[in-house]
Design goal:
about 350 residues, alpha/beta, UDP-N-acetylmuramoyl-L-alanine:D-glutamate ligase, nine-stranded mixed beta sheet, four-stranded mixed beta sheet, 13 strands, globular, ATP binding, carbohydrate metabolism, transferase
Length: about 350
């Protein structure tokens, strides 16, 4: 179990119910220096830290919350760079492991002229896929109030078993479980495998955040705007909150008691990378302060408007982590919207 001088605990106390522990992938995104071109046409690329769970951890820390990240990178320059970026952004990175046999994952990402994102992943296998159960920082998971994860770590063994073990530890410790499937179809062996893998842990979560596209995919083509589709096919009895994001249009929310919609905020978009992760950061930061937010519709709507603003501000700058806002940024932005 390799550890490293770049690790940081940032003074996280025992049984910190406001601590959000994010589990999953941490990688390098290479983004073109020129916008609106395909990967083949891009003349040069800029490296940026990526990986949805890691982005969420940074987003929470930037909002002034308490967060930690658990995952695996390569025992290489990129891996140590990523661990240091977490530390520099006040994320507890003591759960990061370094694999001497595999490289840190790389992803080339571009936004083409037609607005579609194009991904090219280098993971055969990457270090995050080789995360083993015995490498988990069990004590750190048990300190969490919220345990947040995606679905990419479910694609291959041993990371799948490690993911399931971590969820089990969190559930037993009384953590609130948060799930953002973050569908990346190119990484799964087939669409059927993706659907099955994502749904295999669906009924464990307290909170699920999905996009309109993911609803269409997971339901086999049903109308993503239909409340009936969401409530009959995706809402499960243990769920405290289901959120459907609609990009710049805002989001919808569903609980056992109520449902509704919170409009988006108006911004000039430069780069949509990390907007969903910033939104999740905003939601989880509010819930970490007080989990009863999910039962109070007025406060939940305020929390979702705050999260919409987090996502909106992130698209006004390039890159995910550098563009994540502080709490003051968000509050000032919202006060100017009135």
């Amino acid at each position: 179990m390799a550890t490293d001088p770049t690790s940081a605990t940032n003074g996280v106390s025992e049984n910190n119910n406001s601590l959000v522990v994010c589990f999953g992938e941490l990688l390098i995104d290479f983004v073109p220096m020129v916008a609106g071109v395909s990967l083949a046409e891009a003349p040069a690329f800029k490296k940026a830290p990526g990986g949805a769970p890691a982005n969420v951890a940074v987003g929470i820390a930037k909002l002034g919350g308490s967060s930690a990240f658990i995952g695996k990178v390569g025992d290489d320059e990129f891996g140590y760079m990523l661990a240091k970026i977490l530390k520099d952004n006040n994320v507890n990175n003591s759960g990061v492991r370094f694999d001497p046999t595999a490289r840190t994952a790389l992803a080339f990402v571009t936004l083409r002229a037609d607005g579609e994102r194009e991904f090219l992943f280098f993971r055969n296998p990457s270090a995050d896929m080789l995360f083993r159960e015995e490498e988990l920082d069990v004590a750190l998971i048990k300190k969490a109030g919220i345990f947040h994860y995606g679905s990419i770590s479910l694609i291959e063994e041993p990371s799948r078993s490690t993911h399931l073990a971590a969820m089990g530890i969190a559930k037993k410790a009384g953590c609130f479980l948060s799930y953002d499937p973050n569908l990346r179809l190119a990484l799964w062996p087939s669409p059927e495998a993706a659907r099955e893998g994502i749904m295999s842990i669906w009924d464990q979560a307290d909170l699920i955040k999905i996009s309109e596209d993911e609803i269409t995919f997971l339901t086999g083509g049903d109308d993503p705007y239909s409340d009936e589709v969401v409530l009959t096919k995706l809402f499960h009895p243990k769920l405290k909150l289901l959120i459907v994001t609609e990009g710049s249009a805002g989001c919808r929310y569903y609980t056992k008691e109520f449902k509704g919609r919170v409009p988006g905020v108006k911004v000039k978009a430069v780069d949509t990378t990390g907007a969903g992760d910033a939104f999740v950061s905003g939601v989880l930061n509010s819930i970490a302060s007080d989990q009863s937010v999910c039962q109070d519709e007025k406060r939940l709507r305020e929390a979702l408007l705050f999260a919409n603003a987090c996502g909106g501000l992130t698209v006004t700058e390039r890159g995910a982590i550098p563009a994540m806002p502080t709490k003051d940024d968000v509050l000032q932005f919202l006060s100017n919207q009135k």
